[in-house]
Amino acid sequence: MSSKRIVTCNINGRPEEFLCQSRQTLLEVLRDVLDMTGTKEGCSNGNCGACTVQFNGRPVDSCLVLAVEANGAEIETIESVAPAEGLDALQNAFLEEAALQCGICTPGFIIQARALLNENPNPTEEEIRFYLAGNLCRCTGYDKIVRAVQAAAQSRMASATT
Amino acid sequence: MATAEKKYKVIGTRPIRHDGVDKVTGRAKYGADLHLTGMLYGAILRSPHAHARIKSIDTSKAEALPGVRAVVTNADLPQIGSKIADLGEGMFNLQHISRIALACEKVTYKGHAVAAVAADNIHIAQEATALIEVDYEPLPHVMDVREAMRDDAPILHEDVRTEAFASATDEPGDQPTNIAKHFFHEKGNIEEGFSAAHLVLEREFTTATVHQGYIEPHNATALWNPDGQITVWTSTQGTFVVREQLSGLLQEPISKIKVVPMEIGGGFGGKIVAYLPPVAAILSKKSGRPVQLVMDRTEVLEATGPTPGSYMKVKIGVDSEGLITAADAYIAFEAGGFPGSPIPAASMTVFACYEIPNGRVNGYDVCVNKPATKAYRAPGATQAAFAVESVLDEIAEQLNIDPLELRLKNAAVEGTRRVDGVEFARIGMRETVEAIQQSDHWKSEIGDGARHIEGPAHYDDGNKRCGRGFAAGFWFNAGLKSAVTATVRTDGTVALLEGSTDIGGSRAGIAMQLAETLGITAEEVTPTVVDTDSIGYTDVTGGSRVTFATGWAAYEAALDIQRQMVKRAALIWDCNADDVCYEDGRIVGPADKSFTFGELAAQVHKTGEPIIGRGSSDHNTPGGAFAAHIVDVQVDLETGKVEILRFTAAQDVGTAIHPAYVEGQIQGAAVQGIGWALNEEYFFDDAGEMRNATFLDYRIPTCYDVPMIETILVEVPNPGHPYGVRGVGEVPIVPPPAAIANAIYAATGVRMPNLPISPPNLLHALLENK
Q: Could you give the number of structural domains in chain A?
């Protein structure tokens, strides 16, 4: 077994330092070392998107990132999405549109959808479906998820203009 | 159409679900999110063979690896005999569950659990499993249901003899067989029915093994305390049935076992069997520490319970007007490595949508060397409907009758007796088909309002063809047992405790029925799903039963609260309780005296004992559910790829308690049905190994693959429920594969009797028919 390495990075706006083995994924460290279990594991090989985090500005599957690769990185997880009081527009939209059933895929969808809206504030249905195609949901049939992203886009644009 | 008989204040509204904030912020705790002090991580060694005898297992090298705390095999479980347990979604043999948890003497599918390790971390545990030496004697395997039924097929279980069910009369043979069960149902005179027919069609069908595909893998964490108390935390569809299974498998009384529900990330029928809890428990007993086991995706696909592949033959006779004169079905299901496929339900649902004067059904449960199948949303009904609805579509075409008219002519109604003998109460089959007939979708041209297509001009561009298909479906729904308690708090709210694990928002639907009955808001009720020591026995979250049955228990608890509040008001007013009534959320007494719920709640502790309502239910009147779907598809003639252009699902939902979650159930099920129809299948190689055991290769629909799913909620209130609730969750998976196959026929003129209708399969058929 290899010895552990120190990794220094920024997670959700806070400097973090942790020890990890080189075989541990970022997902494993987030969940089992840092106890940030909002990021979920669905497949452990980059096919379901439940473990999506923002990594240096891009949404990535944290199960495909080795924790040692996070040295110096800026990482944002689902735990950072809500402001100190209340919820983010996307989180509100997911609740109001009933865009979750079991909820295990929801953190990944919210991180991915937030990245979409940051890139493209007013996406079409087609653009939403394309951008979210790496995130699997087995409960909703996606209808209400797409509508929630549309609703969040509208409310974000409305609050940006006021 | 969608009008309930009564007007409600809470029922029919769309409040934010009570557990919503936890789930959109990542705070909700699913099974794998639990970290206990001193917890060990476990891993399971699985069979590389589809069929083999286990000659010996040597765990000494694994035990010697630093960091390993316990290694177990089936020898560490009590050896139990055959014992049947009712787990809500069907009868299970506890001996089989024990041998699925850890194989005994032989393995009957690739991925079958053989041994397990608990270690300081998951990596050590996985390394240790590789050090376990198993001496296998590989045996010939059989993967196809028809081959497994042959006399010369390799036998999976030496002790299996065909058991006869329903009206079947088979005598147990003296030779072992793979045919574990035979179901037989008969009504009328089948020969006379067919001889009276103007047209008789008989067709054969096959469907592939498909998986429920929930995103959260199975998990269990167990602590076996030195005092003998066992606690298991797990994501499950039923904490009480996990307790029952553990009690049977560990031979411990239920009083020694507490099962704590964690949030559950999808189940669809697949999270009822206790694969991991008994293994985590004996690892904990051996190591003295809490132990967590979490499957990976490959384990989920290879070693849990998908729904069976099938071979079916359906024969239907009609008169010249299209009235069914006789119907006959032969259904053989691949049970997998142990008996127990959903063949009973398939045999009962196959013709349930229709008035069948003369009918016969033969159903067979057949062992093959695939994962041991389990329930998947309306278990067995989807396969059966694929066959029947495909034949009816062909009959409609041959008689030149509108396919919806053909269904309406033959629709089951109140009083219709099914082939399996059950007589329907008030049902909405006819209303559901009529809802499709009146829908915007049915009245529109193909391509109108469709995704990826600008308008009817692109209907048929030479390489692409469009078509529309229809199919109907039936599911029983279940009642079973539920319990709740509800405590009135002095701030005018109610704490509701329930035992139904919440798989898709049912906390809200149950709280709403309590709120409606008390005349308070949904937000004034705080629902919590609690462990098996904290609430009365509650059956599984399955059978579309929770909103019906646990909702009914909540209604009873609210009535109990009403009675206690009436008495309390009488005490305060110093009058006879008979002069006080509970009306519209108010407690009303003589001389215009009254309390709101909140006003009286505030006085509860000043005037007497706490007010706690209890409610339980065990009602066998869930009301059958019917679904009718239409779909427009576009087929690419060069690739065989099928695009879903538009999809509309109508369903008799009884009373929609929370319409958004009713729609969500229908939409989710429809998309699972689309995946089943077009893509999903287990690919096995010659050695019996699944070659697509990841979400990359076992491809469930993504949001890019599907359009919006339009829903039509037909509300025919169930007379067997105080608020008219019918189960809604399962039936919408039943019609899609048939509806899509019928649409593909309409587009291409090619009938596709085998699922999935994947691009290579369809392209092959298109080229053959050129």
A: 2
